[in-house]
């Protein structure tokens, strides 16, 4: 007699087991799209493919040593929604920018950091640019922007060249430029288009939004017009918000002199101007903190390690820094000092750390201080 396998109890249990197994599988294992499909072949071939398909090229610019590039590849490019969107709308290309044609494209498109995500048309012209990691939803939003000719980087440039200067347009343009490493252009726009406004149009919530979001690019304007007349912004924006925005911009600018020490991005003239400004603004909250940070960066740039340690000793001894600022300045500076070949200098750095009152080091900061001490001791 022929068995009816579909009515067999064992058959039914096999079906249940398979169903339960599938429920436990990740979504990407059940879909044909396991990630963004990257096209292979020469750069010329990719441009021709973009022309045939009438699509933009999405170019993932990475290097072998870039950690966030690997995170993007493993966790973001494999997201089902990201994959569906990018596979539908773009010719996707991934490229090591330290090999082959990648070296040429770094120069052509002005790539300064990784990961960098570019959108390029069939003529090889840049349509949009973003430097840095993005989560899945953010990457989809970036792709949507790239597809809108009036809102991507190329479109914003055209609108600006055509004379558009509405605050919200400038605000969005500056946001895009900030992720495209266009710092000099940002400073020019803020200085020219905001700095040229009369008081009635300058001291407004809309202008403050732009200054607040672009503090470092707006440093010249902050010093020349905002800080001396900040009470005028108090009338249209909450005082606390204005003060916090000024402090955030000045703190970031001051610490940038430490980060840029020894590099071409360190600007001695700008350093001199800011020192003069803070010396003349002793009533400005935290002026001493900003000034000491700038001096630290200047001495680091000149490799005057004894002077660096003298400033740090004052910071530790006289407690005039806020704890977060102190922790940042001490750790970043002493990690530069750890590169000094003079072991006596590095020992003095370790003594500075040992002199810190233990009660002022918060638990979450202890690993950072321990790592810095190991670097000074030559153990890392």
What can you see in these coordinates?
Pfam families: Thioredoxin_2. InterPro entries: Thioredoxin-like_fold, Thioredoxin-like_sf, Thioredoxin_domain. This is Thioredoxin family protein. It is a single chain. The chain is α+β, with helices and mostly antiparallel strands and 380 residues long. It has three domains: 102 residues, Glutaredoxin (3-Layer(aba) Sandwich); 73 residues, no CATH class; 131 residues. It contains 20 helices and four strands. It has a four-stranded mixed beta sheet, sandwiched between helices. Strand 3 and strand 4 form a beta hairpin. Helix 14 runs parallel beside helix 16, helix 14 runs parallel beside helix 18 and helix 19 runs antiparallel to helix 20. It is globular. The protein starts with 8 loop residues before the first helix and ends with a helix. The N terminus is likely disordered.
SSE arrangement:
Blueprint: H1 9-23, H2 43-53, E1 56-62, H3 67-76, H4 80-89, E2 90-96, H5 101-109, E3 116-120, E4 126-131, H6 136-146, H7 153-161, H8 167-178, H9 183-194, H10 199-202, H11 205-213, H12 219-226, H13 230-234, H14 239-259, H15 268-279, H16 287-301, H17 305-318, H18 323-337, H19 343-355, H20 366-377
Helix pairs in contact: 4-6, 7-8, 8-9, 8-11, 11-14, 14-16, 14-18, 15-16, 16-17, 16-18, 17-18, 17-19, 18-20, 19-20
Protein name: Thioredoxin family protein
Domain Thioredoxin: 23-148
InterPro entries: Thioredoxin-like_fold (IPR012336), Thioredoxin-like_sf (IPR036249), Thioredoxin_domain (IPR013766)
In a few lines, what is going on in this structure?
This protein is an alpha+beta fold and 380 residues long. It is 60% helix and 7% strand. The protein has a four-stranded mixed sheet with strand order 2-1-3-4, sandwiched between helices.
């Amino acid at each position: 007699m022929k068995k009816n396998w579909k009515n067999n109890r064992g058959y039914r249990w096999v079906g249940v087991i398979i169903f339960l197994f599938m429920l436990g599988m990740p979504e990407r294992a059940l879909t044909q799209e396991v990630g963004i499909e990257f096209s292979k072949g020469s750069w010329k071939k990719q441009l021709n493919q973009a022309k045939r398909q009438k699509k933009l090229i999405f170019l993932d610019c990475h290097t072998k040593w870039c950690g966030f590039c690997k995170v993007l590849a493993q966790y973001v490019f494999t997201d089902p929604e990201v994959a569906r969107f990018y596979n539908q709308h773009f010719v996707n290309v991934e490229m090591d920018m330290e090999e082959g044609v990648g070296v040429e494209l770094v120069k052509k498109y002005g790539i300064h950091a990784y990961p960098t995500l570019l959108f390029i048309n069939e003529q090889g012209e840049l349509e949009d640019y973003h430097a840095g990691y993005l989560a899945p939803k953010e990457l989809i939003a970036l792709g949507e922007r790239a597809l809108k000719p009036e809102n991507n980087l190329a479109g914003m440039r055209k609108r600006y060249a055509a004379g558009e200067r509405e605050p919200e347009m400038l605000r969005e343009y500056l946001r895009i430029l900030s992720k495209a490493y266009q710092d000099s252009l940002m400073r020019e726009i803020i200085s020219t288009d905001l700095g040229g406004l009369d008081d009635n149009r300058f001291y407004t919530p809309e202008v403050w939004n732009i200054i607040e979001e672009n503090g470092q690019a707006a440093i010249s304007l902050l010093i020349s017009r905002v800080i001396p007349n900040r009470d005028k912004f108090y009338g249209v924006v909450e005082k606390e918000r204005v003060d916090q925005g000024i402090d955030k911009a000045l703190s970031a600018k001051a610490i940038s002199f430490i980060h840029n020490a020894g590099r071409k991005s360190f600007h001695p003239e700008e350093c001199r101007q800011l020192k003069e400004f803070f010396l003349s603004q002793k009533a400005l909250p935290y002026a001493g903190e900003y000034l000491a940070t700038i001096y630290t960066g200047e001495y680091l740039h000149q490799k005057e390690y004894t002077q660096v340690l003298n400033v740090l000793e004052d910071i530790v001894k006289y407690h005039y820094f806020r704890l977060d600022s102190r922790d940042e300045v001490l750790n970043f500076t002493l990690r530069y000092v750890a590169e000094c070949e003079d072991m006596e200098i590095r020992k003095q750095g370790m003594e500075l750390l040992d002199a810190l009152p233990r009660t002022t080091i918060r638990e979450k900061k202890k690993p950072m201080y321990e790592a810095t001490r190991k670097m000074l001791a030559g153990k890392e």
